[in-house]
Amino acid sequence: MLSAGYLTFLLASLSVARAQQVGTNQAETHPRLSWQTCTRSGCTTNSNGAIALDANWRWTHITSGYTNCYTGNTWNTSICTDNAACAKNCAVEGANYQQTYGITTSGNALTLKFITKSEQTNIGSRVYLMASDSRYQVFNLLNKEFTFDVDVSKLPCGLNGAVYFVQMDADGGMSRFPNNKAGAKYGTGYCDSQCPRDIKYIDGEANVSGWQPSPNDTNAGTGNYGTCCSEMDIWEANSISTAYTPHPCRTSNSGGQQRCTGQQCGTPIRHDGVCDPDGCDFNSFRMGIKNFYGPGMTVDTNKKITVVTQFLTNNNSTTGTLTEIRRLYVQDGKVIQNSKTNFPSLMPSYDSITGKFCDDAKKAFGDATSFQKQGGMQQMGASLGKGHVLVLSIWDDHTANMLWLDSNYPTDGDPNKPGIARGTCPTSSGNPKDVEAQSPNAQVIYSNIKFGDIGTTYS
Question: C-alpha distances in angstroms, 383 versus 203, 237, 253, 322?
Fold first, then answer.
């Protein structure tokens, strides 16, 4: 993901931050979300599944009272004198999921509202699937398939309803970092392939040192540290465009979470960090098929869509080498094969992600080869084999206005050049101020999550 969402509080006593201690003002009760595990014999429902809100959205205050540790996009430096002191002195609170964050569940369905107004205004959210009250659910995707239903009909240009996997710690980092007393229960430990530096607490410490408020986001900033790990984007989408994208990393623990600084984070040279920020994406529109996905198209975004992603290995085992990531859709009772690339003079016809597809697409589009540099499919497969945590989110983009997903990008590129056009949204779209003003009722609904053997999660 390119960006974290944020929460704007209208009350001065409440603000957004990420902390490692636990507050006592709001009990943390995870909303239930059932999902299924499937084999050739059928599917079994995990009725005790639940979700937890990421810690970046939660109110944080001093452990002995209500004074904010972070307000707007600035740390309270009288409390947060340094990284360790801030983590020690600040507590993260439980969440009122529906009233404050617009997050609701019903059976196997999860609804994430883009904007929720109560005593305060919340924008966007990010949640994790839980295995228990204190641990994230971990998936090994090799030689398996992951399926879910999604309704993106209320996601216009500039928004992203994302479903993805990251190699973060199952306990949210509690065992590795003793200062972290909150853990997975309170949504700590996030990382991704962008090595985000807007995360306020990393490795049990605050990210106070070097913190710079964002020039265009009144709730965010960046610190000296980022947090990196391998990422598998199953679904980044709105009603106009969609992409699925592997992002390998060469972190110090084989793709797992690592705190970075400087060039490790990809700063100042984007493609010279420990992670692949671009990934190897398959976006049907970008691949030359412009009538496949969208309102009224082959995959009709006016209706619920079943999304199937298969992770094939060289020996059809969960310990094999990842060779291919396939995509299928099901809608109106019909299986829809993925579209094929449509640049016959530049590359063969591909309908899935393989090492050869990634090599040919990067060459055809003139893209940076950070995917290959960070180990490509082999490194991505090794990461998936170590287990990934499921993330579900809705967000807008203060960095690039989501144009990399649904418009022409770079915006000064020739849209007739292969790889530039990614969707039909105008290059003037996606500004978060506009999106938030014009789409207050935007939402995404994820449902019917299934995980299992190849060919068992859909019909």
Answer: 20, 24, 10, 10
